[in-house]
Amino acid sequence: METILDVQDIHTFIGQYHILQGVSVRAPKGSITALLGRNGAGKTTTLKSILGLTPPRQGKVVFDGREINGMRSFDIASLGIGFVPEHRAIFRDLSVEENLKIAERQKGDYVRKQEFIFSLFPDLKRLIRLPGTHLSGGQQQMLAIARALVADNQLLLIDEPSEGLAPVLIEQLMEAIKQLSAETSVVLVEQNFLVASKLAEYYVIIEEGRSVKQGNMKDLADDKATIHRYLGAA
Amino acid sequence: MSIFLRKNFTRLIVLAVLAALFVAAAGGMESSDFVITLLRGLSVGSLTFLVASGFSLIFGLLDVLNLAHGTLFMIGAYIGWTVYVRPDTFVDLLTPLFLIFSGFMLGDVWAVIGTRGLFAGGMKRILPWAGMLVSALILVGVLRSYPVSIWNPEDYAQSPVSISYLAGLGQNLLPPPAAFESISPLLAFAGLLLGSLLLAFSLALFAAGKQGLVSRLNWCSFAGFGAFLLAGILFFVFNDALTNFLASLNTNWLFLIAVSVAVATGVGLGALMETTLIRPLYIRPIYQLMLTLGLSAIGIEMVRAIWGRPEFTMPRPAFFAGTGEGCPATSLADWWQYHCSTMILLDGRIRIYNEIFVPIIGLTVLIGVWILLQRSRLGMVIRAGVQDREMVEALGINVRRVFTLVFALGVGLAALGGVLAAPSIGLSNMMGESFLLNALIALAIGGLTSYPGAALGSLLVGLLQQFIIKYGQIGIPIPFADIIFKPTPPIVPASTILLMVVVLLILPNGLLGKKE
Fold it and tell me: Given a cut of 80, is residue B214 above it in pLDDT?
């Protein structure tokens, strides 16, 4: 199976703290891979390290056959990686439309992708003129994902998409992520195992800054002992 | 509507009180005094705004408190004066300047070399310093012998004071052009080019450890380098022709060129300052503060060494300098016909340049930058970058480049303020400091990172100062006592600080600032 992202034994420091102490992730092309683990395990730092926001000091990150570690984060993103951060990072002084337009890498990206984006998130069309501050948590999450879809990204890194959302919205969001994964590979961090198991085909468990287990999500769903040991869920 | 009122209740009350004070201040004087004071307030407010807006843009996006901003305002004024009054000096300087900056055009090339790890260990640490030292020696050595026709601040007859005075009388005779004597043109060219390449490379190596791997070589860098090199050569070849052309221009055109050159210099200095000095210190804000403070002191000393300490004036362009027949003008049509320096308005005499032209430029810049911020992609990126730089970068946008652009734009605005202020308030070594203080007060009043706040704060500072000055002349009758209180000059700066303190006590984020 072709791999879109291959993270090989990365070590990342934040200040003097050795946060990632050997994380490896393989994400097959055209699939959803979930990074699982407890709070503070290093899942978010892994996403940020892939994107060069917290550059790894050791190890290799290969995206679509190209080594990207050490490159500047905007150069990495320009290669075709979209990022949806945990806190959504909606630009509050920009309107919904501006929040989408700013993600254009080529002129006309937004116009070209408009139909696809609004078919995934119809609510956004209605809110297009509103400033980012006026959106609810769920609407902000949709906008954050939509923003990552404006440019032609081959890979989306989504951090905690279900965090703080009502169950109805989570369902809606899961449906949207499933739909978009038909066109784009996704690596997502998800605390909610139920959500992750429904969405992802592959998983990587990160424990105390190390990747300890990875494989097929179907196998993990049947492995109650592993789930209990690393994720604290039964 | 009710939500808006509830959210902004305190702000609206403060604005209403300020408006009431303004009406009361207006009611206490003749209508002619009021109009003149108002226009003077607008003029000072406009110049303050040009400093404050740039400062606010830089602080908002880059978190850099640029304490050299006032000095850059002053440098804008002195550069403008040089182009306007001594075009020969300006033309003589073009060739060395273009050659010195040509090396920096290859910034991306140096960055690629610097971040590729071609130099390791001790070499990597020593090379930048050695390079900077050698390039500085080469550049200083060449520039000492490079012929530039320039004034002499030590000799009163050839000092900027005398030159300005004569220029104001229309007797601006340029001295004979300077010639190459102690150095050959070819050697000077080679030295400047070598020094520039070495300096730019050394500074890039110095910054290399602080940025990620630069993967893409921008071929435009070579085009930029070629353009600067070519410009340097052309200015050398056509030096006399260009000097004669500029000297033959009327003062209106020359003033326009002086303004453009001052702004371009500000933009260039800003870009250079951000890329070479500020960028390596983004993770150490306190050092940035110390650096800009140090640069400010260096800038003032350099201005003193080049232009001298005494204050002098910059003659106004002919468009605003008429004094003969038909002056002072009684209407705009009259002014247009005779280009009078003053006009009678409501029985009061106003200075066209100071009280009409400067506020118009201030308003134009306010609208222009507002459109840039609200309607352009760059503006969108700036507004987004102010909120979340990391996310902007994660979208594939080179935020560093935007930082440089904003820094350059901010300094360009300060330089514009400086060159506009020169014919209005004259040139002095301390003009930058006083306007920086005004701008800081204006920003504290309006909101530190708010662009409309910068405009409102500057307007309030300008108006308050001018109304206090006016009341210092006509006095304020104290109710229920037979006393006329005349504010003394020290009260002028004190009043703006008092206003700032009151506003900050009630609205800690300023009148239009947002909660941090």
Answer: no
**Which chain B residue's Cα is nearest to A95?**
B380
- Interface ipTM: 0.92
C-beta atoms of B215 and A75 within 8 A: yes
Structural domain span for residue B447: 9-116+147-182+213-326+329-506
Residue B1 is predicted with a pLDDT of 62
CB atoms within 10 A of CB B172: 17
CATH number at residue A183: 3.40.50.300
- Asked whether B200 and B117 are in contact (CB, 8 A), the reply is no
Count, residues in chain B: 516
Q: What single string gives the DSSP state of each residue in A24-74?
A: EEEEETTSEEEEE--TTSSHHHHHHHHHTSS--SEEEEEETTEE-TTB-HH
Looking at the predicted structure, is the pLDDT value of residue B119 above 70?
no
Q: Do A73 and B388 touch (CB under 8 A)?
A: no
Structural domains in chain B (count): 1
Which two tokens mark B228? 């600067």
How far is residue B370's CA from residue B382's CA, in Å, rounded to a whole number?
A: 12
- Domain hosting residue A220, numbered range: 3-231
Count of C-beta atoms within a 10 Å radius of residue B475? 13
Q: How confident is the model at residue B404 (pLDDT cuts 50, 70, 90)?
A: very high
SS3 of B254-282: the string is: HHHHHHHHHHHHHHHHHHHHHHHHHHHHC
Q: Scanning the structure block, which residue is given the tokens 């006309």?
A: A108
pLDDT in tens, B90-109: 999 999 999 999 998 887 78
Mean pLDDT of the region A85-101:
92
Number of domains in chain A: 1
Residues 6+ apart with CB under 8 A from B149: B86, B88, B89, B92, B174, B175, B176, B177, B178
Strands A81-84 and A155-159: parallel
H/E segment holding residue B348 = strand B348-351
Q: At what angle do helices B358-375 and B31-62 cross, to 10 degrees?
A: 30
Read off the pLDDT band of B447 (50, 70, 90).
Answer: very high
Least CA distance to B514: which residue of chain A? A93
Number of Cβ within a 10 Å radius of residue B2: 6
In a domain, B125, yes or no: no
Burial B61-82 (b: 16+ CB within 10 A, else e): bbebbbbbbbbbbbbbbbbbbb
B486 belongs to a structural domain: yes
Looking up tokens 């906008």, which residue turns up? Answer: A143
Q: Say if residues B65 and B143 touch (Cβ distance below 8 Å).
A: no
Instruction: With respect to residue B132, please indicate whether it lies within any of the assigned structural domains.
Output: no
Separation between Cα atoms, residue B29 and residue B25, nearest integer Å: 7
pLDDT at A69: 86
In a mutational test of the B interface, the residue from A79, A91, A149, A159 whose CB has the highest number of chain B CBs within 10 Å is A91
CA distance A152 to chain B (A): 11
Torsion angle defined by CA atoms of residues A105, A110, A114 and A117, in that order, rounded to the nearest 10 degrees = 40
- The residue of B108, B381, B393, B399 whose CB has the most chain A CBs within 10 angstroms, and thus the best one to mutate to test that interface, is B393
Residue A12, SS3 per DSSP: strand
- The string of DSSP codes covering B196-209 is HHHHHHHHHHHHHT
Residue B173 has pLDDT above 80, yes or no: no
B119 vs A217: CA distance, rounded Å: 47
Sign of the four-CA dihedral B99, B104, B106, B109: positive
B321 inside domain: yes
Long-range residue pairs from A8-11, CB within 8 A, at least 24 positions apart, any chain: A8/A59, A8/A60, A8/A61, A8/A62, A9/A58, A9/A59, A9/A60, A10/A46, A10/A49, A10/A56, A10/A58, A10/A59, A10/A60, A10/A61, A10/A69, A11/A56, A11/A57, A11/A58, A11/A59
